[in-house]
Protein 1
Amino acid sequence: MDNLAHIMTTSDLSIGYKNGKSLNTLMEGLNLKIQKGKLIALLGANGVGKSTLIRTLANLQKALNGKVFLKGKEIKEYEAKEFARQVSLVLTDPVQSGNLNVTKLVEMGRFPFTNWTGRLMPNDHEKVEKAIQLCAIAYIKDANITEISDGQLQKAMIARALAQDGDLMLLDEPTVHLDANNRYTVLELLRNLVNETQKSILISTHQVEIALKMADEIWLANCGENIKCGTPNELIQNGDIERAFPYLKKLEL
Ligand SMILES: Nc1ncnc2c1ncn2[C@@H]1O[C@H](COP(=O)(O)OP(=O)(O)OP(=O)(O)O)[C@@H](O)[C@H]1O
């Protein structure tokens, strides 16, 4: 395995759900590679298993089979805090803690780096401020998270992941509640982040057109098939994108 070029790899990975004796395998035999300094967009229809894959890579859900490696070490060997220092996550799950303002939520991204007191140091506050600026949410930084819109909360969750500053960011549909301009802005922000910091980002999204413009690589998940990986151009040229998203042709995009 080439640890220098790849931040995360999978080996013969199968994902899905086990309930007693019944097994629902969504994808199998996955040998995926996340290169350093790349923005990867995971595309595919509803229910194909995108969230399940992200949750499995994030060590939140057990693989049915196979292995996931972060920087050459199997993810199940990591302590939770050590893993969180390197992998920032944005999931679609609602935030559990109710009585928080936006700044406090973003500060939670720094918790893997604090000592037992949980106190933030000047360097942590700097990262929190920078994340708030980058996500353009300074105007709501004192607002309670129960009193902001879904889209504003989503940007705050992205800011929390930015503050966490992991080398790898995994984001599950981070633009789902955002209006059209903000969807573009968030993906542009992630694109710039990759360009400027050489972080790696895997994002699942239904924003096919924007993903094709912004991503270095596309992972195309189709029901009953292996994930197809390639540059946007490769997958457009060989017809995979048109087969998966026939509406694009109808819109003549
Ligand atoms: N906790 C669970 N237990 C059992 N099956 C589940 C569970 N969560 C999801 N599934 C099933 O796994 C399949 C894939 O779900 P997943 O959420 O990963 O799809 P997705 O590609 O992210 O879909 P979407 O684009 O709609 O978000 C679905 O058929 C779903 O019913």
Protein 2
Amino acid sequence: MSRQARLMFFSPEKRLANAIILFVITTLFYFFGASLRLIDELSLFWPLNAVLAAVFVRNPFLNRAAYYFIACGAMVLFDAMTTRWGWQSLVINLSNMVFIIIMARLLLRYSRARDENNWAVNAFNLFYFCLIASVLSSLVGSIGFMGPSGDYRQFLPLFADWFSEQFSTGVLMMPLLLMAKWPQWSKWPAFHLSTLYPLAGTIVSVLASMVIGGAGSLTFPLPALIWCAIRYPLPITALITFLTGGIEITLVAHSMVEMHHNHPLVVNEMFSARLGIATMAICPLIVSVSVDAIKRLIQQTSLRADYDYLTGVYSRSGLYEALKIKAPLMHKPAQKLCVMLLDIDYFKRINDSFGHECGDVVLSAFAAQLSKVVGDNGLVARLGGEEFVVVCSTDSEEQGYGIAEKIRQSTELTAFRYQQQTLFITVSIGLAAMTPEKQTLHDAFNSLLAEADKYLYLSKRNGRNQTSNAAVEELTIDS
Ligand SMILES: Nc1nc2c(ncn2[C@@H]2O[C@H](COP(=O)(O)OP(=O)(O)OP(=O)(O)O)[C@@H](O)[C@H]2O)c(=O)[nH]1
């Protein structure tokens, strides 16, 4: 991911600026969380912990005691100015820090190394890391909050509420926070109305869960979210999933999705709803991560198929793809399509005298030299063994012949090096050219390749290290 595309607020060199920004972010989100408080101390959503954990994951250099201290200090200071919690504030904020530090450390240790470019939201890992961080931080929070003289019958409901909030907010927010980047509008595909269908499906299913109600209705958006995961990029899926989960939690908390008709909302139901929503939220992400991985695999496989592994020039299949995509841009209607078939002379001797590895080095250096001479004026491919093909568009066949000769002469003059050895090679070339009229470039190429093969044979037969084409063939026949 490029520096510009990622959201960058921190820098390893600017420690004071880092400290100030961290302090401001902590205070802002603390304020936001505090304004969402539902019942006394507890919050419906507490986004600060997920936000700070993501900040520490995205900026590994911030993972130092001093920065942890600043974040915790900002929280305690906010409480000191806005509440009368006293020591309880220390416990609550310590529990926040437990979540933040455990989450950041686990993600940095197990996810980042695997995929440097994607901040690897391995959805399974994220789910379990959130679980571990939430259990530990809620334990610290609820035990500390009750204190030694607390009524321990209250422990379980307190722990359940604390844990389910941390866990659901973490699972819903972390993927989005870890992947957030400035949108690159230029890379967005053209808009079609059908693009909105999965989003519309999600909205309709959230509305349906409001109308129908009951615990089961919370899973209504799942199919639509999975549809989103298949259609949209990973960060967009993370955003929609986050919004859907957040809306559902709010609806349940405000009894707009009824879990039990005619019964007021009790903590256990909230606990169950939050866990259910968090579990549902991870499903589209798992699909999205898998779709992303499959897409990358397809990209890698086609890259492998399109390029020759040894020399880096096009493979045979890659050349046919390039003829479809690149050649029409390069070829003007009145121009000649020139196909040169090249075969290194006596290549077997190089293998026999210096070994197969030396042969590979020569093939690779020859391909590099060939690409340099042809430049942007043509396509270079390796058909197999020591046989290469060059396709270019020229104003005349003579011009094509000129390029072929330039290749041949530069090959003859190049000293190829392998270990302490200096080797010289020559190449024989067959050249065929035509102005494709009704034929596609692909068909024209196929017939020119067969013709060039005939002229290559002529070059070999006439002593190698030469270029042959129709004109040379005529001369040979005449003489
Ligand atoms: N090192 C290496 N050798 C290869 C590769 N592919 C094919 N070869 C060798 O290339 C040689 C081609 O030999 P021949 O077809 O007899 O042709 P030549 O020796 O070049 O002789 P002429 O083409 O008639 O000038 C064989 O020894 C193959 O084993 C490769 O990827 N690497």
